[in-house]
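As a warm-up, study this chain.
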Amino acid sequence: MICALGAAVCFGTASVLQAVAARAAEPGTGSGVDTALLLRALRQWRYLAGLGLDAVGFVLQIIALRHIPIYAVGAALAASLAVTAVVAARLLKVRLSGTEWGAVAVVCAGLVMLGLASGEEGAGKGTLALKLGLLAVAGLVLVVGAVAGGLPDRSRALTLGLAAGTGFGVVEVAVRLIDDISLSALSNPAFYALLLGGGAAFLLLTSALQRGSVTAATAGLVLGETIGPAAVGVAWLGDRTREGLTWLAIAGFLVAVAGSLALARFGEPPAEPSQPSGV
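Now compare it with the structure written out below.
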């Protein structure tokens, strides 16, 4: 759980940096799957710093996924929005009201409940059908991203955020379905699902942050990366709670996600004037 919370700190801080960088970069094709925008964003130091934090967070996330159930990791990662709120308050001079600080406290309370109720990760390794299905979902994320490019800004941001969250959710499940990173992983469909899902998620999230409501995008992101993976972990991978504490785990999960959604608007820093892509 400590590693999962560390990942949340990294991802939450990175989201502020990447949102500013994506807004400062000139748009590419305008599509939801916008590689030109990603390449322009990569020239911004803030985006690169955010990627560095994402890399550290990903390592911590893998460690967490190897030791505790997916639902606990997912809820902890949803709490990255609480981190974003605090970072925005410090770095971007965003003032948090008493109600908003209360939402941060709600997230923390939900995570404490989850920590008390979580058992060990399940022993299930997943069937071939589950691994192939995961790869198909990763491909579907790209399709949804391409279609979402033509939607109105707010609907576009919500759809892209939800698709990006699903892509990150694919990564969470795939980590559990890969025994070890070696040559044997090349024959595992989950390995390719991890690469495709993670790559697609970064593309779509960058597009979502660049245009439209980041509030809607981050709300979709939280929903996509928590609910689906948690269900897969319980239904197919054997994730369980401590004896008699299932109710506490469910309550903690719902409380943490609800508090994170209440803080979703803090994924949106103040707009900055457009600058040349090399800045």
